[in-house]
Each structure stands twice: as structure tokens, then as C-alpha cells.
């Protein structure tokens, strides 16, 4: 069966018609580059699809690409990504053996003035839902043993709008996701560590992130 052709109008808010039926991650990545399933593609530089080991035991799911990710076309290459790699290593998870992606594949942002710095803007539930078929396809191909949820948006995309990271973080969860039973560990998004008000708060937030990732590491051991 050949990949489906893309024909959905943006106001339908779904990526489903753009997702190919076969071809693995390379086919998904190529198809995602042409996704017009919602209006976010209009202002973003490019689609930022997931990256990493297709046989990864752990999949890390964040919110959406940031400014640097949008420019480079890869997830978690900015300051938050570097902090995440350090935290993973400290927790006992090799970042090179993980698959990293985002719930939303285009950078959503606002500007105070033209040519000014692009300011991150949280995706809406409608935009997260529109992008859901890409995340479902990634899960189907990679088949990770464990999903690490990075922040509230990723949690809402996977577990529904009632998800609260503060209530769920640091525990091994089990839920059905896109028709598959999955084990999950929730934690904060690494960008929230960087936004901490001072060094003391930043240190505490980082230690909390590492502690949650250690739960994930034990689940994989």
C-alpha cells in the first residue's frame, strides 16, 4: 500500500491524512515535513520531527520545538536539551540510546515587534490533538518500553486534559496510549529548570528532574 496523499484542509485540524501507512521513521519524517494539518506550519521555519534510536527502550516526549530546534530542524538541541542530556546521564540513562520527540512538531511563538526575538507560546489542545497522529505513529514504530513525559503539555497530549504534572511526577504509571499499553514516568520540562528564579531554586528544580529520571532508569533496569 502506498502512503496516503495529503489533502486535509487546515481547518480540519488533523495530521492524519499526512501520515504514511508504511516506511518506518524515514517515511514519517519525510511526510511530516509536508504536514499542513493545522496552521502552525505557516510561521514555523520547518517541521521538527523526533530523533534518535529507532530501537530505543525509552521515548522522551516534550511539548514543542523551541527557537533553536525550529532553526536546526532537530528536537532538544537548545539549552533545555543540553540540560536534559546532563540530567539523563546523571540519572543513569544514556541520551544516545533514547528517542526524543515533541507532542507538537512546529514551533508556536509570538513577537512583540517584527524582527524581535520569538517568544514561545504554548500550543492549544486543538493543536496538540491535530499532531497526535504523528506521535501515535512514532510510538508504533519505536515501541518503547517506557515513555518519559516532559512537562504538562506532553502529559495532556498523551493522557488527556486533566493531566497535572505536579500530581503525577516521579511515579511509574501505566496507561493505554493510542491503543497500546504503556509504562510512563512524568517529570517537568527541562526548560522549567532554566526559568527558575535564582540559583537555589534552579538547583532544587534540577535535582527534582534527576530524581524523576532515576525512577525511569530503575524501570528500565
What layout of secondary structure does this protein have?
Layout: H1 24-32, E1 51-52, E2 58-62, H2 67-72, H3 79-91, E3 98-102, E4 109-110, E5 119-120, H4 125-142, E6 146-150, H5 152-159, H6 165-168, E7 172-177, E8 180-187, H7 190-194, H8 199-220
Parallel strand pairs: 2-3, 2-6, 6-8
Antiparallel strand pairs: 1-3, 4-5, 7-8
Helix pairs in contact: 1-4, 3-8, 4-5
Would you kindly provide a written description of the structure presented here, covering whatever features stand out?
The protein is α/β, with parallel strands linked by helices. Helix content is 38%, strand content 16%. The chain is built from eight helices and eight strands. The chain has helices spanning 24-32, 67-72, 79-91, 125-142, 152-159, 165-168, 190-194, 199-220; strands at 51-52, 58-62, 98-102, 109-110, 119-120, 146-150, 172-177, 180-187. The strands form two sheets. A six-stranded mixed β-sheet has the order 1-3-2-6-8-7. Helix 1 (24-32) packs antiparallel against helix 4 (125-142). The longest helix has 22 residues, at 199-220. The protein is globular and about 45 Å long. The N and C termini lie far apart (39 Å).
Main attributes of the structure:
221 residues; six-stranded mixed sheet; 38% helix
Number of DSSP strands?
8
Unreliable stretches, pLDDT < 50, 5 or more residues?
A: 1-5
Task: Indicate the overall shape.
Answer: globular
Q: What is the string of SSEs from the N terminus onward? A: HEEHHEEEHEHHEEHH
Going across the biggest sheet, name each strand in turn: 1-3-2-6-8-7
**What is the terminal separation in angstroms?**
39 Å
User: Using only CA atoms, what is the Rg?
Assistant: 17 Å
Structural class by sheet pairing and helices:
alpha/beta
**What helical percentage do the residues reach?**
25-40%
Q: Quickly count the helices.
A: 8
Percentage of β-strand residues: 15-25%
Amino acid at each position: 500500500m502506498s502512503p496516503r496523499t495529503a489533502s486535509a484542509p487546515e481547518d480540519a485540524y488533523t495530521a492524519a491524512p499526512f501520515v504514511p501507512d508504511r516506511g518506518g521513521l524515514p517515511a514519517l519524517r519525510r511526510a511530516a515535513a509536508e504536514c499542513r494539518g493545522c496552521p502552525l506550519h505557516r510561521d514555523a521555519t520547518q517541521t521538527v520531527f523526533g530523533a534518535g534510536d529507532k530501537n530505543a527502550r525509552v521515548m522522551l516526549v516534550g511539548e514543542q520545538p523551541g527557537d533553536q530546534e525550529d532553526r536546526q530542524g532537530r528536537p532538544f538541541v537548545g539549552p533545555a536539551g543540553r540540560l536534559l542530556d546532563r540530567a539523563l546521564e546523571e540519572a543513569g540513562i544514556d541520551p544516545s540510546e533514547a528517542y526524543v520527540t515533541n507532542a507538537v512538531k512546529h514551533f508556536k511563538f509570538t513577537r512583540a515587534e517584527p524582527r524581535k526575538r520569538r517568544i514561545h507560546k504554548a500550543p492549544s489542545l486543538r493543536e496538540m490533538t491535530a499532531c497526535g497522529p504523528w506521535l501515535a505513529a512514532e510510538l508504533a514504530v519505536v515501541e518503547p518500553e517506557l515513555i518519559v513525559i516532559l512537562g504538562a503539555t506532553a502529559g495532556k497530549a498523551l493522557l488527556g486534559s486533566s493531566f497535572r504534572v505536579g500530581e503525577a511526577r516521579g511515579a511509574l504509571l501505566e496507561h493505554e496510549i493510542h491503543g497500546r499499553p504503556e509504562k510512563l514516568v512524568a517529570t517537568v520540562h527541562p526548560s522549567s529548570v532554566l526559568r527558575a528564579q535564582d540559583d537555589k531554586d534552579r538547583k532544587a528544580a534540577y535535582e527534582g528532574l534527576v530524581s524523576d529520571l532515576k525512577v525511569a532508569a530503575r524501570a528500565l533496569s
